[in-house]
């Protein structure tokens, strides 16, 4: 019995290490290509957002063509993959070429200023690669489920630069209600090896001072503002979720052709850029970092514009994830809240950074760990590549 248990654990460690290294390399390459595309857009003789009314309809059309050729994934696509693996079905086709095509569409969306993040593509790539390797390794049942969680953890580890929080994020997102030791072990090992692989490939990260440097000491006078901030972030998260649902219902209910909707969203992005409101467009990584500086002033309407731009982009033609835009909304709204009450703005930006994600994505445990990892010591926020 003990021998079989040891062999099982060794297999788990071996698979997780392999998945972590492979995913670290793939996600690192994806990030490098992403920032190459962003730099390429800056070298154009005109602003790239002027291409949005043309590119976004093409992205929608290619998405529709892909959905006819491959599996159609909705917002619960990763849980669908997990359920499929749970049933040990082997007849469902691998869809790695579909995933790489979606990554290309994500690049096109960011290129023209679409408000999206890379997490969706990272999760798809992690789940797809693990599904492929599970069949190569002839894994069944529990081993296959562990591989999927490990792949998603590896993707979040590289994208967020948080190898400790990434395994818990993967488990919470996958709604794995019964946390098994081997699953957590595989996700943790894959997360750290992915992070180390990305660092080996020179993925650099934004750094900022640790929490004690500019955050206030714990005292009773801070108790009430923190409670008010929690209520404020809860209300904001409620508005975000409701707005996305209403917009989704509107998209289904209206008879307007989807191409025209994509043209409208592209025109909206172009209009924002033309009036100098480029902060809510694109990834927003630099803007997130700036909120942790006490000298930064944040306008109240920027988080709201980011919500609208993200919802429009994702619902009407764009391709990408919502995780990074929510980090933007949380940190920006938190900084503004700190300004409004006359408090320490970077402190409330840090609270909003994790609170909005916790409420909207329903990952409170991993958000708390993410906060401890990012703000407890000098740690990275999101990847940034110097060229």
How would you characterize the overall build of this protein?
With 387 residues, the protein is an all-alpha fold. It has two domains: 2-204, Clc chloride channel; 207-383, Clc chloride channel. Helix content is 70%, strand content 2%. The chain contains 16 helices and two strands. It has helices at residues 2-42, 52-69, 77-86, 96-111, 119-136, 142-160, 165-173, 181-200, 211-214, 223-253, 258-274, 285-290, 301-315, 323-341, 345-361, 364-375; strands at residues 205-207, 380-383. Strands 1-2 form a two-stranded antiparallel ribbon. Helix 4 (96-111) packs antiparallel against helix 5. The chain is globular.
In short:
With 387 residues, this protein is mainly alpha-helical. The chain has 16 helices and two strands. It folds into two domains: 2-204, Clc chloride channel (Orthogonal Bundle), CATH 1.10.3080.10; 207-383, Clc chloride channel (Orthogonal Bundle).
Largest sheet: 2 strands, antiparallel
- In CATH, the topology of the largest domain is named Clc chloride channel
CATH homologous superfamily assignment of the largest domain = Clc chloride channel
Q: What is the C-alpha radius of gyration, as a whole number of Å? A: 21 Å
Kindly state the percentage of residues in helix: over 70%
Oligomer state equals: single chain
Order of helices and strands: HHHHHHHHEHHHHHHHHE
What secondary-structure arrangement, pairings included, does this model have?
Layout: H1 2-42, H2 52-69, H3 77-86, H4 96-111, H5 119-136, H6 142-160, H7 165-173, H8 181-200, E1 205-207, H9 211-214, H10 223-253, H11 258-274, H12 285-290, H13 301-315, H14 323-341, H15 345-361, H16 364-375, E2 380-383
Antiparallel strand pairs: 1-2
Helix pairs in contact: 1-4, 1-5, 1-6, 1-8, 2-4, 2-11, 3-5, 4-5, 5-6, 6-7, 6-8, 7-8, 7-16, 10-13, 10-14, 10-15, 13-14, 14-15, 15-16
């Amino acid at each position: 019995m003990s021998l079989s248990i040891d062999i099982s654990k060794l297999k788990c460690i071996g698979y997780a290490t392999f998945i972590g290294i492979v995913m670290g390399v793939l996600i690192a390459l994806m990030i490098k290509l992403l920032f190459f595309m962003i730099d390429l857009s800056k070298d154009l003789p005109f602003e790239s957002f002027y291409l949005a009314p043309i590119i976004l309809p093409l992205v929608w059309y290619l998405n529709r063509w892909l959905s006819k050729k491959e599996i159609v994934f909705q917002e619960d696509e990763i849980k669908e993959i997990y359920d499929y693996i749970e049933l040990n079905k082997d007849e469902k086709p691998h869809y790695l070429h579909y995933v790489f095509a979606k990554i290309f569409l994500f690049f096109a969306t960011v290129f023209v200023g679409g408000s999206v993040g890379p997490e969706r593509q990272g999760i798809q790539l992690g789940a797809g690669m693990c599904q492929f390797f599970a069949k190569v390794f002839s894994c069944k049942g529990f081993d296959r489920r562990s591989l999927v969680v490990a792949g998603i953890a590896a993707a979040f580890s590289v994208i967020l630069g948080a190898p400790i929080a990434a395994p818990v994020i993967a488990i919470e997102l996958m709604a794995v209600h019964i946390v098994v030791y081997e699953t957590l072990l595989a996700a943790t090992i894959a997360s750290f090896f992915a992070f180390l692989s990305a660092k080996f490939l020179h993925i650099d990260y934004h750094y900022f001072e640790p929490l004690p440097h500019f955050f206030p000491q714990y005292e009773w006078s801070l108790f009430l503002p923190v409670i008010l901030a929690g209520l404020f972030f809860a209300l904001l998260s409620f508005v975000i979720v409701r707005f996305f649902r209403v917009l989704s219902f509107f998209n289904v209910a209206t008879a307007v052709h989807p191409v025209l909707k994509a043209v409208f969203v592209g025109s909206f992005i172009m209009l924002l850029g033309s009036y100098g409101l480029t902060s809510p467009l694109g990834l927003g990584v630099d803007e997130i970092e700036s909120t942790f500086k006490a000298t930064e002033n944040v306008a109240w309407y920027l988080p709201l514009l980011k919500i609208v731009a993200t919802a429009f982009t994702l619902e009407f033609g764009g391709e990408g994830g919502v995780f990074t835009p929510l980090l933007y909304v949380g940190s920006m709204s938190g900084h503004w809240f700190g300004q409004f009450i006359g408090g320490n703005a970077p402190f409330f930006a840090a609270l909003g950074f994790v609170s909005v994600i916790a409420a909207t994505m329903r990952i409170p445990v991993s958000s708390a760990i993410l906060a401890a990892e990012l703000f407890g010591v000098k740690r990275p926020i999101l990847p940034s590549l110097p060229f």
